[in-house]
Amino acid sequence: NAGVTQTPKFRILKIGQSMTLQCTQDMNHNYMYWYRQDPGMGLKLIYYSVGAGITDKGEVPNGYNVSRSTTEDFPLRLELAAPSQTSVYFCASSADRVGYRTQYFGPGTRLLVL
Amino acid sequence: GQQLNQSPQSMFIQEGEDVSMNCTSSSIFNTWLWYKQDPGEGPVLLIALYKAGELTSNGRLTAQFGITRKDSFLNISASIPSDVGIYFCAGPQNNAGNMLTFGGGTRLMVKP
To answer: Is some CB atom of chain B closer than 8 A to the CB atom of A97?
Structure first.
């Protein structure tokens, strides 16, 4: 079972470059999420989606964009990368609202912006 | 927004010892979740609590939903080396329950 997969695993970006972090889940979950985890800190929600075509901002959306054209995929776009975006990015999915269903996390994408 | 404060921030214990950690909030939560993150991996749900006063176990792990609904506790009995990792508490951030707030984590290190 693949679960939640993320690519790439690691990336180095120069300031001002753009990139897309890919996330795919094969569990037919409606809910998908993007978090970032700064060193020594907890996870902060960037964006989430409750179904294909529906996205909403989380706590820290600035500098990011998302789209949800299919149930399976939820890519995260970084425009004009900045050093403050150096972090580990986790994608997650759940069948229902997080309080009532297990949220499954991907292995993470480690991003370094120099 | 709501904040969750975890303590201690880190613990270094001997294998076989029991561990206690807690999570507090200035706001009421209706659900408490405890996750573990192994090094280099994403978090994995350990225990979910849905009622004030609830005590739930998962193997050597026991978690409690505080009566005030503003805190939760996680205990690990007879720790083993594979318990190493970061333990996070989390709770739904809004009434819709579709956004989670995470605590800062407790980093556990176990000496064999």
So the answer is: yes
